[in-house]
Amino acid sequence: MNRNYIAGEWMVGDTAAKNVNPSDTSDVIGAYARASSTQVDIAIAAAAAAQPVWAATNPQRRFEILDAIGGEILARQAELGDLLAREEGKTLSEAIGEVVRAGQIFKFFGGEALRPGGELLASTRPGIDVEITREPVGVVSVITPWNFPIAIPAWKIAPALAYGNAVVFKPADLVSGSAWALAEIISRAGLPLGTFNLVMARGREVGDALVSDPRIAAVTFTGSEMTGRAVAQACVARPGVMAKFQLEMGGKNPLVVLDDADLEVAVDCAINGAFFSTGQRCTASSRLIVTHGLHDSFVARLIERLETLTVGDARKPSTHIGPVVDAAQLWQDLDYINLGREDGAALAFGGEALSVVEGQKGYYLQPTLFTETHNAMRINREEIFGPVASVIRVQDLDEAIAVANDTAFGLSSGVVTTSLKHARHFRGSSQAGMVMVNAPTAGVDLHVPFGGRKGSSYGAREQGRYAAEFYTTVKTAYIRP
What we know:
Aldehyde Dehydrogenase, Chain A, domain 1, alpha/beta, globular, Aldehyde Dehydrogenase, Chain A, domain 2, six-stranded mixed β-sheet
């Protein structure tokens, strides 16, 4: 596995990094190659050379290749899901679900390759037709995070290929196994050599080339807000041609629970949104904003449910919440928990690291709930990215909306209510790219647009037909017969 896929070949890396199971730190999954700067340059050159060949490939062939990739992913869902759970730490059921989604994404965009679209308009000038078409944007850098190690690469790579672009893919260092497995499947699908390239390395070692090289036409990035801003600056600061860029950077998502809510629905939404996937989702419900009349009942029932959740090995059927991804993430979560205490929040549940679970050393953390918090606390301002949620008490819907919108982020939001009037008002007032009514803030469909506002996102939406906005460029032609 000490190889990157570059220019149609598996190239040995200069060094390799061990991939460790966060559920059992004695379990080393493998050693995965780290590409050198020279190899990154070769990958970019190969993609640039392959770009016109792939762009000229007919839609039927693109469909066949993407459909075949999706089919193999689906056929191997149990195997790939086990690998994903083992290296990232989400439960096996969640991991298999993510793999299935990745396969479906490739199949969906295979279909989109057959529907390029376009317009034919009459000109305001006699005897002239106007034809509007979409063309590939060019070589795309795909930079992905560790929390969805196969689904997020899929929803970037699949549309890039569907619309005729070559790809240089750099996954997060912590989840090289899933990235390598996906790349190995893609490598056998029949793409022209150089159309798809995998470069595994630490971001700071190869990141500059992947955003600054003039042969890169577009950069799609999912990760932290700080790194996203650096990507944007690098794309704009290029001498000559700037790069198109798309950024998904995080959230501090509110789930509003109103007095008229169904209590069990509200608690289900909070448990799923805040604590499943170990809270390591940019759409996680980290702020639970509850109106006064239901507040005490909601907190009591939520704690009852938290007491029934099992923290353990991600691959065991009894586990509800797996480990956080690594030691650094665990310490970050614990730092925020301590900060919440220091700022006066009441620790209502959890908050402790569990260094050993059932005899295994791992990066385990109890699901953590704070109460008696207010929106100015840092635990309610900054993305924690762990199984940590805060309850904020408010008086009514208007105050709930004001608190929900009082954030630098705007990815996802939710409301639990039995009132259509309240649901409609919240939907129209929420400053988020995605709004959920009586559903968790985390969890979206593959065929509809994904993205947010404010500090959460920048650029065109991801997924569904909206993906064409980023991965293509529009050409307008005036034709006199």
